Each structure stands twice: as C-alpha cells, then as structure tokens.
Amino acid sequence: MQDYYILRLHKDLRIALEKERNRLYALCGDRSLLVWEPCIILGPGSDQAAHIIPSPPLPVIVSGTARYTNGILHLPLADSTALDRTRESLQTSWPIHGIFLGTVDIEYERAELALRSLSFAVMETTGSSWRIGRERRLHSDIYR
C-alpha cells in the first residue's frame, strides 16, 4: 500500500474529468484512465502531514492540452512552480505538476481550467484500488 498527498479538485470538475476519461478509455482501452480519481498528486505521503498546509496561489491555471511526462498523462499547470510551497511544507515531491489522468500516452485536449477551490487529502492506494482519507482545508496567506 502506498499513500500519496493530493489536492482534490472541486466535485463538479472531478465528475466532468471522470466522464472525459471514461470516453478516452472507450477509445483506447487503457485501464490506467480508470485507476485513480483526477487530482493533483503532490507526492508520496508519510505518517505525519504538516499541520498547516499552504495553498498554492489561487486560481491555479491548468493547460487544456494533456502532456505525457515520466510515464504519466496529465493536464499541466501553467505555472510549474505553483505547488512548490505546498510540497515543501509536506516534504515531498512528484515529477509532474498537473492533474493526473492516467499512464497512457494519448493525445487529449480540453478547455483551459482555472482551479479556484482545492482541498488537501491523502489517497491510499493498493494494487487494484484507492481510497481518499479525510480532507483538510488549505491555508491561504491572507489568513495570516
């Protein structure tokens, strides 16, 4: 079992991306499009997460053209440094900066996204399933 720190997308966006990934699965048949929910993976989790997790500057702009990097299909963030403070506070890293879609190399385009609502969670994975732990709110600098 592996735990990952993630940023969860707003429910409506998760549902919309799931529908799009189901359509892509129907076209190519790659099961990686169905494995995990669309989210921003921050990196591998540990036993202790930071108490205060800084939010990336909102809105986070996401490109509509998918990119295949390091074996991962994702929608990249316009600013690849947007997650740096969040990852640093959690002492983790991940090779991509964007919304996880799967591990298949296919072409995919959609409208650009502006993420205005994100929450922190731990995604617990096994070989064939995943589960999202309790969500936590992110802390913005405007509250300090």
Structural commentary:
The structure is a single chain. By secondary structure, the protein is an alpha+beta fold. The chain has one domain (2-143): Cyclic Phosphodiesterase, Chain: A (Alpha-Beta Complex), CATH 3.90.1140.10. Helices cover 20% and strands 29% of the residues. The chain is built from three helices and nine strands. The chain is globular. The model has no long low-confidence stretch (mean pLDDT 90).
Distinctive features:
144 residues, Cyclic Phosphodiesterase, Chain: A, 4-stranded antiparallel β-sheet, single chain, alpha+beta, globular
Could you give the topology of this structure?
Layout: E1 2-8, H1 11-28, H2 32-35, E2 39-44, E3 60-62, E4 67-69, E5 72-76, H3 84-90, E6 98-102, E7 113-115, E8 119-125, E9 130-132
Antiparallel strand pairs: 1-2, 1-8, 3-7, 4-5, 5-6, 8-9
Helix content: 10-25%
Number of domains: 1
Number of E-type strands = 9
Order of helices and strands: EHHEEEEHEEEE
Classified in CATH, the superfamily is Cyclic phosphodiesterase
Distance between the termini: 36 Å
Short structural description:
This protein has 144 residues and is an alpha+beta fold. It has helices at 11-28, 32-35, 84-90; strands at residues 2-8, 39-44, 60-62, 67-69, 72-76, 98-102, 113-115, 119-125, 130-132. β8 (119-125) and β9 form a beta hairpin.
